[in-house]
Design a protein that fits this description.
The complex is a heterodimer.
Chain A lengths: L5 H13 L11 H6 L3 H11 L15 H5 L6 H15 L10 H9 L7 E3 L2
Helix pairs in contact in A: 1-3, 1-5
Chain B lengths: L2 E4 L2 H6 L1 H14 L4 E4 L4 H6 L2 H17 L4 E4 L2 H10 L3 E4 H8 L15 E5 L8 H14 L2 E2 L18 H4 L1 H14 L4 E4 L2 H9 L3 E4 H6 L17 H16 L2
Parallel strand pairs in B: 1-2, 1-3, 3-4, 5-6, 5-7, 7-8
Helix pairs in contact in B: 2-12, 6-7, 9-10
The chains are: A mainly alpha, B alpha/beta.
Amino acid sequence: MTNYRKSTVDQAKFIAETCSSCRRCMRQCVFLQQQGQTPAQLFEDFVEKGDIAPLVPYSCQLCHQCTVVCPHHLELADAFLAIRQDMVQANHGHTPLKQMKGVELHQLLSRFALFCYTKKG
Amino acid sequence: MRRGFMAGCSLSAYCPQYVRQTVDYLKEFYPELSIIQECCGKPLYYLGEQAKFERQFGRLEQSVKNCEIDQLITACEGCLSMVQRSKQFESISLWTVLAQIGLPEAAIGKAKDSDMVFTIHDPCPTRDNVAMQQAVIKLLKDLGYQVKIAKLSGEKTLCCGMGGMCGVANPKLAHEAMVHRVETLPTKNIVTYCASCRSAMMNGGGQAWHLLDLIWGPVVYQGDKCPENTLNSTFTAWKNRYKTKQLLKNS
């Protein structure tokens, strides 16, 4: 089980306590709509259980539209990213989702000289 | 001021020729332009693999330093958001620069007889960059196209569906988000300025052009089909990245 940083849990608590469940953030976000919970409920569950299924934080598109429309400008994306970082930390530097291996490979290939080029003008 | 240009991975994987043409054009104004063909590491940042991200971003920083670049011009909004977040060096979007220096003469007004009405999909990592969003509107109008602004644009823009690595983590949800995004737009003829967003808008059922398609490519009319979705083929994408490097090497 992931040992979440205090700052991550505090961030989640702040959202759980501040979100007024107005659902403005859910109007355009397919991810939040499918979760079926307001951010208050979602983050309260996380704080209570002390964990969350990895697919939840990894399904947020980290686009911050929710923050723009939120009357309290709550930073849900930052909270989900912090949860991802803690999951990686607990999993020896790798994401817990197997399907993300391709991204790591993509990043490895991106460093190959075959695709990189720097030229001082 | 010494400038550098960074096309980014997705654009390089989409259209090597347009990257080369853009570099050639920028060099007319900035003969000392440096080229940075590297990854900013944003995918690692999104994964939450912070230590690996910092190593990758550090490589980019070193390259910028080695080239003595004062200002990095980026064609990718993902790269731009990472560079601006780090605050390590000055950066500006290619679109803001193009609005300032003006389009190539051959491109100005080239679509004035086109009946096409485009809407714009603003990429989400730069939702707060009003100067860039306005520059894009200006560039489309300077080309001669009619533009219908979407309600959910600018600061309120939606993600194309690929954001946050959701496309890999949860492809079904990402696809639903792509379809939803296209449905929120006032026309199915979409212009965007992120190669990854363009691919997503096509996967969501839209006809989508990259701004560089319209600057360097043929004039588009109602009913025209947009260019092929090359990013859907992993092989073509990597082949193009190699080709971009070769084209830039010989520039």
